[in-house]
Design a protein that fits this description.
The longest helix is centred in the first third of the chain and has 37 residues. This protein starts with 16 loop residues before the first helix and ends with a helix. With 452 residues, it is α/β, with parallel strands linked by helices.
């Protein structure tokens, strides 16, 4: 049977010329075989390394299932432009407080799997104070921020340091039925008294069942709504510079009295103290209310083809006390980079793209969200689809921050509990706000003492 000569034993030389020639040829064959084997091995290693180096870097971000579905097109556009990066979206619950809890737990336990932090504006002080976010101040220039609404940038800072890129904004609005106000010969209200008087007039004429719907349930929406009425009354909640608490001042009672009057005088439904945004929107959109406090998301829905009030809705900044100014609670979302990320450069590229003009334009056109870039409010494509956008800019620019303190979540919980008790009649309003103010001061003093 024939065999490969390279596997045979070398010929034994007898010091003859032919014997040395045979040995030389045998050694040459062995050498060529070895070189070939080494070459194949090196080629395999090289191409393996090349293949691994061409694999995209994976970065992860947690967001609600709803946001993930509505904003997936932005992620896909980024990946198409950055094939070296793959964004893994972890879908969480739709309730924003549960998303906050998941982020908080992951950071507290250590070894968080998230490279990016998709956060509500009110989470930022807590996350930044805890050291969970990468400081972006020296990575993002003032020129990069020039087009952004200043309030959205301010809401992305903590202690004058930038920790997130703002990608969506929000501000509380007063919605009204244009057709009903025309019917009554009334102008859109400016003050609390205007709103009450117009509501009563239209209710008496049976034009609407209710005058005003708002968010009165004990949750974060109650705090956001109350900030608007409180500042519109000339009051304040917490001064972030001095940590002074203003909940037990006369202006706070004026704000609470306006809300209680809407309930006691039958302008708002008795159940308004259980309403969140959607309960208020559904009642208003069904044509049963004249006025509504809500966020901008409600406008495209009110003007949808299947809406009974399509084309009959106006909006304006919130009403206020006589001699005071309107205030809308600033909301919105942004993206920060986790300080624990193993891929901070790739994560920052993604955050910057999400906040870019291109991405925000697509987000607006697809979902109707308010952008954080001023130029997009007059962008031809945007205005063609949403003709009201230029009028939204002054509203967004006049929005007010909820107190940017590290203990915001606890402070908001205190306000919600006592305010809900005051609005539902379980506690005298003055006593409720004294207790709320004292508990808030204790919270802030305890934090200050732990930091000193």
């Amino acid at each position: 049977m024939a065999t490969d000569s390279s596997s045979q034993s070398p010929p034994r030389p007898h010091h003859g010329k032919n014997d040395w020639t045979s040995l030389h040829r045998w050694l040459l064959r062995r050498w060529r075989f070895a070189v070939l084997a080494i070459g194949v091995f090196l080629a395999v290693v090289f191409y393996g390394v090349m293949a691994l180096s061409q694999q995209p870097v994976h970065i992860t971000m947690l967001m609600s299932a709803l946001d993930s579905a509505q904003e997936r097109h932005i992620v896909e556009a980024f990946e198409a432009k950055n094939p070296d990066i793959k964004v893994d979206i972890i879908e969480g619950p739709n309730a924003s407080n549960l998303i906050e809890d998941l982020y908080t737990s992951s950071f507290l336990l250590g070894g968080s799997p998230y490279d990016l932090v998709y956060m509500d504006i009110v989470w930022l002080p807590k996350f930044a104070a805890a050291g969970w976010l990468m400081d972006l101040t020296d990575r993002i220039t003032q020129a990069d921020l020039a087009d952004f609404i200043p309030e959205t940038v301010e809401g992305s800072r903590y202690n004058d340091r930038l920790y997130r890129m703002p990608v969506r904004t929000d501000s509380g609005l007063l919605y009204y039925r244009e057709d009903l106000l025309q019917q009554a010969g009334a102008q859109p209200p400016e003050t609390f008294s205007d709103l009450i008087n117009i509501s009563q007039q239209l209710q008496k004429s049976d034009a609407a069942d209710w005058g005003y719907v708002w968010q009165g349930r004990q949750y974060e929406g109650l705090s956001a709504m109350f900030v608007e009425v409180l500042e519109g009354s000339g009051g304040f909640w917490i001064n972030p510079e001095t940590l002074e608490v203003g909940l037990d001042r006369p202006e706070t009672q004026k704000a609470i009295q306006f809300l209680k009057d809407t309930i006691n005088q039958g302008i708002s439904p008795p159940g308004v103290t259980t309403y969140q945004e959607e309960e208020a929107r559904r009642l208003f959109q069904s044509g049963q209310a004249v006025f509504m406090r809500n966020w901008p998301y409600a406008l495209p829905l009110a003007n949808a083809d299947d809406s009974p009030i399509k084309g009959k809705v106006g909006f304006k900044p919130m009403v206020h006390a006589q001699g005071q100014q309107s205030a809308g609670a600033l909301g919105g979302w942004g993206i920060g980079v986790a300080k624990s990320s193993t891929h901070p450069e790739e994560a920052l590229r993604f955050a910057q793209y999400y906040a870019s003009e291109e991405a925000q334009r697509n987000l607006v056109l697809e979902n109707g969200y308010l952008p954080t870039r001023r130029s997009l409010y007059t962008d031809p494509q945007v205005v063609q689809q949403y003709s009201y956008f230029p009028r939204m800019l002054p509203v967004a620019e006049s929005a007010t921050l909820r107190p940017p303190v590290a203990q915001y979540a606890q402070a908001s919980d205190i306000l919600q509990r006592y305010l809900s008790a005051a609005l539902t009649g379980r506690t005298d309003p003055e006593q409720a706000m004294r207790d709320a103010a004292n508990e808030t001061r204790t919270l802030l003093n305890r934090y200050s003492a732990s930091r000193s």
